[in-house]
Design a protein that fits this description.
This protein is an alpha/beta fold. It has 12 helices and 9 strands.
């Protein structure tokens, strides 16, 4: 398909055109938006550099021929190639902050944003958080957003993917946080010897193979390394549960997102008192455990790993 420029259009007209095209194309929405209008708005406003939208009068502004063609090309790629909008724009928003993204990292969409904005209250004493680890960081959005919520804390971003860390480093520079944040190439905890943290946050790959095989096309444009959690989806989670207490300071806490594998995880460890988080704005499958709890049930976690 080829979408042609018919005349000079306003931002609002382009958004309407995109929404109509997306509705006819039967796209999947789940990478930051959940409907055709928001998806089209994100592309148009992103390409025309109007995000965030501070003044709705901008919607009646005319779009130059050059930018209009970029928008229409993005619409076409969204439809034909099923590329998530954030990759087309090169930017995603998380916890109210903009992040550079490309197809080497997952599109930010974690419910961790709500916990970060609330500074993990009431389960964390924010005055005692001086060191944070964002494990399996991808774009770095979780760790960077945490650095803003905990302005006194040092933050490490760890990921096995050097390509993902390149993206994370761009975002560290973008937000001028190089004095407090370090990006580290590490297979889970392996590259973090002798480091300990007050707070470990992790959004690891947790999609099981059955679920992975049935995902919409848009998910296959993302790095599968960031999604594939093994046959059960819990392969990395079991490892994290075993090894995390070694990297937590006394009184430290661990938060992990496991998404749709939450029930499977609880069934694996029926006696473990996972504190499942509740979200006002949607989302599920995030638990919290203290270092003391991780040590108490270490034998169970170790047995599952074996």
């Amino acid at each position: 398909m080829t979408i042609k420029i018919q005349k000079i259009k306003t931002i609002n007209e382009l958004i309407t055109e995109g929404a109509n095209l997306f509705a006819d194309a039967g796209l999947y929405f789940g990478h930051g938006t959940d409907n055709t209008l928001d998806e089209a708005s994100y592309i148009v406003l992103g390409i025309t550099k109007n995000l965030p939208l501070d003044n709705e009068q901008i919607l009646s502004s005319e779009v130059s021929v050059d930018e209009q063609q970029k928008v229409l090309d993005a619409f076409e790629r969204r439809i034909v190639e099923r590329i998530p909008a954030a990759y087309l724009v090169g930017e995603a928003w998380f916890a109210g902050l903009p992040f550079f993204v490309d197809n080497n990292v997952l599109v930010p969409r974690s419910p961790f944003a709500e916990l970060i904005e609330d500074r993990f209250a009431p389960w964390v004493d924010s005055s005692k958080i001086n060191s944070i680890l964002d494990l399996c960081t991808g774009s770095g959005c979780i760790g960077i957003a945490s650095a803003f919520s905990f302005p006194e804390a040092k933050v490490d971003l760890a990921d096995i993917s050097a390509l993902a860390l390149n993206v994370a480093n761009k975002n560290i520079q973008r937000h001028k946080l190089a004095d407090r944040i370090e990006a580290i190439e590490s297979d889970l905890f392996e590259g973090l010897a002798n480091r300990q943290y007050d707070l470990i946050i992790s959004n690891p790959p947790y999609v099981g193979h059955e679920e992975l095989s049935n995902l919409p096309d848009e998910f296959y444009k993302e790095p599968q390394l960031g999604l594939d959690g093994g046959v059960s989806g819990l392969e990395l989670v079991h490892n994290i549960l075993v090894k995390a207490p070694e990297y937590l300071k006394e009184g430290g806490v661990l938060y992990v997102e496991v998404g749709n594998t939450d029930e499977a995880l609880q069934q694996c460890y029926p006696v473990v008192p996972f504190l499942w988080q509740e979200f006002e704005y949607g989302g599920h499958g995030v638990f919290m455990l203290t270092k003391e709890q991780l040590l108490k049930y270490h034998t169970l976690f170790q047995a599952k790993l074996a």
